[in-house]
Amino acid sequence: MLNFVPGFDGHTAIRQWIVEAKIADSSVFQVIYNVSAPKARSIPVEGLRPYTRYQLRLIAENVRGRGAPSEPSVAFETKQTNPETPASRLYAEPLSATSLSLSWTPLLANQWNGQPKGYLILYREVGTDHWHEVRIPSLRASDFTLRDLQPYTSYEVQLFAENMFGRSSSSGTSEAKYDEAFLKHETVVWMKEILQDLRRGAIGTTKKCPS
């Protein structure tokens, strides 16, 4: 809420109040809001971004034009809220029999809406209820590898952004499946390893065939 005492109106009704702001580290004022309220003594300024520093000033406008800007307000910071969005474009695909490769597009600096904590990965075997959690503190992270998973098992993965206030909505569930092409490739690799063992005379070596 911006409170003020109106100055001289030039004996003409005020048509609108124009709110200008310096945002974050900017040194330039820009128009962020205007309202037609001739008799107003306070204005609720809408559309401000969370966790952002502002300095405001007010300009009155009548039929003759705009007056001089007021003195700037004391700088203030808006409150934190949940991150604006989860990381986008989450992809999950098998990397090996027991690992999955994850990739995503990280948040921009102004999308965290608060003091950032990082990313939260939830994953589970398809058809089960229990989600496992992994937290990544790096704000610039755009990929991660899930390891030591159940061999050749399909998994569901979700991604969230977290700050000190709370958590974003989910990225949506991405499912990683071991398709026929991957299993054929793994089988070829398995057969090559068996042949190499036989050539070395390692007859007792046992390797599990992809199923």
TrEMBL record:
Transmembrane segments: none annotated. One of its GO terms (cellular component) is synapse. GO terms for biological process: homophilic cell adhesion via plasma membrane adhesion molecules; synapse assembly. Keywords: Disulfide bond, Repeat. InterPro entries: FN3_dom, FN3_sf, Ig-like_fold, Striated_Muscle_Regulatory. SMART domains: FN3. SUPFAM superfamilies: Fibronectin type III. Residues 1-81, 86-181 form the Fibronectin type-III domain. PROSITE patterns: FN3 (PS50853). The keyword Repeat applies. PANTHER family: NEURONAL IGCAM-RELATED (PTHR13817:SF166), TITIN (PTHR13817). This is Fibronectin type-III domain-containing protein. The lineage of its organism: Eukaryota, Metazoa, Ecdysozoa, Nematoda, Chromadorea.
